[in-house]
TrEMBL record:
Function according to Swiss-Prot or TrEMBL: tRNA nucleus export receptor which facilitates tRNA translocation across the nuclear pore complex.
A molecular function (GO) term: small GTPase binding
Domain Exportin-1/Importin-beta-like residue range list: 101-258
GO annotation terms (biological process): tRNA processing; tRNA re-export from nucleus
Origin organism lineage: Eukaryota, Viridiplantae, Streptophyta, Embryophyta, Tracheophyta
Keywords tagged on the record: Cytoplasm, Nucleus, Receptor, RNA-binding, Transport, tRNA processing, tRNA-binding
SUPFAM superfamilies with a match to the protein in the record: ARM repeat
Protein's name according to its UniProt entry: Exportin-T
UniProt key word tRNA processing: yes
Location of this chain's protein in the cell: Cytoplasm; Nucleus
Pfam families, alphabetized: Exportin-T, Xpo1
Amino acid sequence: MDELEQAILLAHDPSSDPNLRSQALAFCTGVRTSGDPSALVRLCLDLLLRSPHPPVLFWSLQSLHDCIVSSYPSFPPSTLPSIRSSLLSLFSGRLSSPSTPPFLKNKLAQCIAALIRTEYPAVWPTALIDLIPNSNLQPHAAPALNDMFARVLVVLDDDLLSQDYPRSAAELADAMRVKDAMRTQCVSQIVRHWFEAVTLYRMSEPSVAVTLLDAARRYITWIDIGLVVNDAFLPLLFDLVISPITASGLRLAAAGCLQSIILKRMDSRPKISLLRSLNLNRVFSLEPEMLIKLASLITTYASETLECYRKLGSSDPDGLSSLELLEASLPSVFYVTENCQEDEVDPAYVFDFLSDYVSTMKNPSEKQLSYLGQILQVIKSQMSYDQTYRASLDVLDKIGKEEEDQMAEHRKELFTIFRGICRVAPDATQMFIRSMLISSLSSPGESDVEEAEIALTMFYRYGETVGEEGIKSGFGLLGELIRMLLMARFSCHKHRLVALVYLETVTKYIKFVQENTQYIPHLLGAYLDERGVHHSNLYVSRRASYLFMRAVKLLKAKLVPYLDTILQNLQDTVSTFTSLGWVDKEVKLSGTEDGSQIFEAIGLLIGMEDVPGEKQSNYLAALLNPLCQQIELVLSNAKLQQIDESSTKVLTLQQIIMALNALSKGFNERLVMSSRPAIGVMFKQTLDLVLKVLAIFSNVKPLRSKITSFLHRMIDILGPSIFPRLAVALKQLLVDNEAKDMVDFLLLINQTISKFKTSVGSILEDVYPDIASRAFLILSQDAFQAGPGGTTEELRELQELQKLLYSFLHVMASNDLSYVFLAPNCRQHLDAVMQLLLFTSSRHKDMQLRKACVQIFVRLIKDWCGNSSSEDKLPGFRNFVIEKFATDCCLYSVLDKSFDFRDANTLLLFGEIMTAQKVMYDKFRDEFVMNFVSKNLSAVHCSQDLAEQYYQKLQGNDLKALRSFYQSLIENLRQKQNGSLVFR
C-alpha cells in the first residue's frame, strides 16, 4: 500500500487521531490540486485498477470526474484513449459486480456521463452503443451490467439532459448535441434493449428492471413517442402495472413510464389521440388497494385530459372526447384523493386539478352534479381533523395549536374549490350541507366532533358566497338550513372546535334574523346559553361575548322587548367577570376578546332611548352599584397602597374599570346630560370613585392605562361637566410618566382639546408646563432627529411620543388655543418649542411632521402678528419668523436635494410652505419682501429677473401659479449649485 492510499484510508477513518486525520486530508487535497492534471488522471486510473479499498476507489473516481469536467482540454491526446478504455473496463469488470457498493457504481456512472458530455459524438461516437450490454453475456454478468447501464443513463439525465434543473447556456448546448446524436444513432437500440431486459428480468431480477424503467421514464420525455407507444412496449408496461404478481417497486416504475407518456408535450389533438390509445380504463377497473398505489398515474391522466378539454372546448369533437376520458377517470381520482396518504399523491396537485375542473362548469348536467357531489365528499374527507388530536384541539395545547394551524393552511385550496362549487351548484351544495348537519345532529355523544365541525365550517363558507341579500331572503333551502342552525344542539357542542365554528356560523347568517325577527329568541339562546357565553370553555365564552356584542350592534332596537331576558341570562356572567376568584384563575387571558364585550353589549342595549327612563336608571344602577362596591371594598384596605401591579386585587380593579369603560360605550352625551341627567349623575359618581383609585394607585401603570381609557369615554358622554374632575385627573396622570404613559396622556389631552376647544383653555394653561417639561425630558435631541425607522420597542415608543407631541401642538394651534403658549406660567417653554418647530419644519426626515409644523407656524403668525410690530402679541416673533423660519424652511430646506418633488408627501409639504409664504407676505409686506426676496434669494444667486417674477406672483391671488413658479425657480437654482450655498 503506497503513501497516498494510506492517507486516503486515514482521512476516511472516523476513529483515527484527529491531528493525523487532518494531516491526511491536507495531503490528499495537495495531491489533487497540485501538479499536472494528466498525471493525476494516470495516478487515479492506476489506483482504480489495483486498489481493493472502497475509500481509495471513491477518491480516485471523484478526482477523475473533477479532472474530466475542469481540465479535459489540457489532456494530451495520448491520455484520452486510456481514460475511455479504463472506464469501460471498470464498467464491465470489477466495479459492476453485485458486491460493489452502490456509491462506487454511481460515481463511476458520473465519470462516464461526464466523458460522454465531453466526447460524444465527435470524439467517441459509439459511446452509448459501447455501453449497451450484449445479449450474449453470461447470465450471472448480465444483470449487473444492465444495472450499470441504467445508472449511466440516469446520471447523464441528472447531470446534463434533464430540463428539471437550471442549466447554463453551455450545458443546454451540450444537452442538445447529445440528444440529437442519440436520436440519430442509438435511441431505438436503447429502447429495444429496455424492452428485452425488462421482459427478461421482471421476475428474476425485478430491482434491475426497476432501474431500467427509471431510466426509460426520464428519456421518454424527449425521444420519439412511437418507440414506446407501440404494440410491444405499451402492453409490457400495462402488464407490469396490472398484473397482481408484479413486485410493488416494478409496478410503480412501469406506472412512472406511463405517466411520462401521458405528460409528453404535444398539441391537444394528437395528445387526446395518444390518451385515448392508452385505454386507461383497464387501470380504473383495478381493485381499490391497487388504485391507491397508482394514484399519481391516475391524477396525472385526469389532469392532462382536463387540459385538452379546456383548450379544445365542448363544441369540438376532440374536446368532447377528452371530456369523456376525463369523466371516466373521475371516480378513481375521487377514490385515491380520499384514501391516499400525502406521500402517495401530491394533495396540491389534485386540488389544483379539482379547482380547474370545477371552473370549467357553467350549467352542470346531472352527471356533472353527481361529480360535484363526490368532490364535496372529497373536500369533506380532506378537511377532517384526525381524531387522535381531538383532546389537544379542545384544550388547545401546543400540539392542538400546531394541528389547527396546519389544517388552516391545508384548507385554503379546499375552500377555493368549495367556493367554485357553491357558485355553479348552490342547490347541490345546500343539500350536501343539510345532509351533514342532519347526520351530525343525530350522532350520539361526542362521537363525531370532526363531522360536526366540517358541516358547520362548510355552512359558514357557503354564507361567504351567498351575499348579504341572499342571506336576508333565506330563499329556498337556505332558510331551512338557517333555522336548523339556530335551533341546533350538537351532542359534541362542548368541544371547543364545534362551539366556536357554531357561533361564527350563527353570526354569519344574522342578517336573516334581522329580517325574520321571530327567530330572535333562538338567536339569543345560541349566544347566551351553554352554547355561547355559558360554555364551559373560556375561549368559547369570550368569543361568544364578542359575537353577541356585534349582534347587538346590528339588532339593537329589535332586542328591546327581550331586554329583561337578556339581563337575567347574563347576571352570573357579569358578576363572574369582576370577581376576585375569577381574576386569580384566568388572569393569563387577555387581548381584544377580554370578556368586557358583554358589558359593551349590555350598555348598547340599556343605553337606547327606546328604553323607558326609570327602567334605564334601574338597569344601570343594578350594574354600576355592585362594581362600585367592589372598588370601595378594595380601597377600604389601606395596606393595598403598597401592592404591586400583579396583585390579584389590582387585577380585579383593572377588570372592573374595563367593564365600566365597555358599559359606557352604549351611552351618548345628549342622553346622559340632557335627556336623562340621572344617568349622568351615576356616571359622575362612578368617575369620582375611579379617580380615587388613580390617586391611590397612580404608580401602577397597567391600572392607570385602564383609567385613561375610561376617561376618554367620560369626556365623550359627560361633556363640560367633567372639567372639575378632569383637571385633577390630568395632574395625576402626569406623575412619574415614561414614554408610553405620555403617549396615552397626549391622546387623552388631544381628544379633550378637539372636543371642547377654547372651553378647556384654563385647564390647559394649568397642565401645559408639566406636559412640555415632561415631554422634553423624555425626548432627547437624538429622538427628534431620528425620523422614521428604528427597531427596538423603546425607540418605537419615543417616535410615537414625538409624533403625538407635534400633534398636540398642532391641535392647540388649530383650535384657537395658541394664547396658552403665551400664558405667564407657560412662557418658560416657548423658546424650546419654537426651536423644535423650526428644526422639524426644516430638517426632519418625516415630511408629514414637517407639514404639521409649517401649519402650526402659519396659525401662530395669524394669531400673534398684527399689521405692525407694535400690534404683535409676542415681541420678536415677527423677526424670528422672517429671519429664521422663512429662510431655513421656505428656502434652504426646499433647495436641499432630499426635497423630492416626485414624492406625494413632499408635494403636500411644499403646498403648505407656499401658503406660509403668502401669509407672511400678507402680514409683513415690505419686511418679508426685503428679507426673503432682496436678501435670501440674492444669497442663493437668484437672478434679479427671476426674483422680480417671484415678487409679482407673490402679490397676486393665484396660489397655484405662485407654487408652480417657485418650484421651477428652486429647480433652476439647484442646477446652478454655485456660489457659497452648500447643498446638503
